[in-house]
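Hello everyone,

My group is preparing for a crystallization screen and wants a predicted model to guide construct design. The compound we'll soak is glutathione. Before spending weeks at the bench, it would help to have a computed complex in hand. I've included the protein sequence and the ligand's SMILES below. Output in structure-token form would be ideal because that's what our pipeline reads.
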Amino acid sequence: MAIKLYDYSLSGSCYKVRLLLGFLDLEYERHPIGFYPEREHRTETFRAINPLGQIPVLEDDGIRLRDAQAILCHLANKYDMSGLWLPRAPELYGLVMMWLMFAGGELMAASAARLHDLLGYDLDIETARRNAHAAFRILDDHLTRREIEGGTWIVGDHPTIADVACFPYTALSNDGGIGLEDYPALRNWLRSFMHLPKFDAMSGISEFA
Amino acid sequence: MAVTTDRAALNEWIACGWPEKVVPGGKYRTVLLGQEIEVRRTGVSSFEVFECDGHGELSRSLPVQAKYCCIFTTLGEPIRPLPKIPEFDEADRRITGCGSVGVHTSPFRIIENFLDMAHFSFVHTDILGAPERTEVLAYKTEHRKDVDEIWAIDCQFYQPAASKASKGGQMTHYAYRVMSPFSVMLYKNVFDDPTRNDAICLFVQPIDETECLAYMPLAIVDRESALTSIIDFQQTIFAQDRVILENQRPALLPLDPTIELPTRADASSIAFRRWLKAKNFQFGVYEKKAA
Ligand SMILES: N[C@@H](CCC(=O)N[C@@H](CS)C(=O)NCC(=O)O)C(=O)O
Ligand SMILES: [Fe+2]
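Reply:
Good plan to model first. Here are the tokens for the complex, ready for your pipeline.
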């Protein structure tokens, strides 16, 4: 049965899922949601699909999943025969999960800043930007340590779903008026990610990162 | 933030929202040329707009018109009516706005980028331009004095996916129309049908000189695509432009060719800048500091 993604082109969270579907060469049916200005994700019809009123949602063989990070785990677990995108080795697995939670948690402050600047969401932009900077600082420090160890990726020697989950809102930070001047390791990592085979850019990602 | 004193800017109709932004009976505040205003939806299609004074109290009532999927007002005495865009009355068109998108730059950078075909292959790669077909063929620009509009006609550009309806590449024929310093539109021929045009508008609400909201009302000939997909396509394109726009320096538009030289392909940009200069625009314009 086909994979179906409830998707919106300008959503960074949906982009996480589109990226992994691309890396894994998976065919899928795209169901566009009128996120803006229609706010279709807040309608009764869509809440029947995801009571949280959020995208992405993925359907695969009778399973319906919300939350980009959960979806990445599902896809990697089921379809990545190499095991590289979701390593099961005890010294890697927990770390991948940890950075996945970070992508769905602290890093989402950058998403809030973007929704404010791009789509006019009414929220405290100073707080959003400050929290995004704090998250970028943490990721940049981590990637600096990884560089010193000779590593490129957030965990291990191969990109994982942790990289996939952290990439969109970092690469889209400019959309929310957040510069990455102070995060050199973050910029190196973004550049490496954009050079991955099958990488597909989305609108708003600047090539001069 | 101070209200501009530039009469040329004050005396234009400017978009300040779209009807569905607010429910009937609802209201919202926004800023126009540095002036805070309150927009009220008093009925399904009736609106009121007020200026707010320095204490946030409503003061003057402003003229208002709802048309082309937008709400328009003016802070001055308009020197021209809203433009006539008959495509929005054609029964078989798909008519929609795309909400508003915030852009940190001068309103004129946004208008100028919309007129520019040279960026298609680089910014909208594989959609509005192909990397190997970057050439902008010669086209004509004219100042239509009866309506005081700038037109660029006989434009064409090779496009891999000209619209949501496209099923392959085509040489797209364009006409561009600058209807006011804050509003521009284009006509481009529909995929596989040289006799019909899609009409795509870009109305800019300048909050201040370097912060804007962009509205993109569409009147599209496309029987098949869902409205959601048509909006999604337009927003995807504009989000690509937005990155470029926000990185342009200076953000204000230089009208003096010794500061920033438009290239030869930019005939429409040259015409647009001359036209702004002739209007003696100060708002949103880069002034060379005296040495
Ligand atoms: N935890 C969710 C959050 C996703 C999310 O924030 N999605 C946004 C679009 S990018 C959304 O649907 N927002 C609507 C809302 O929160 O009301 C995930 O990671 O997938
Ligand atoms: Fe563009």
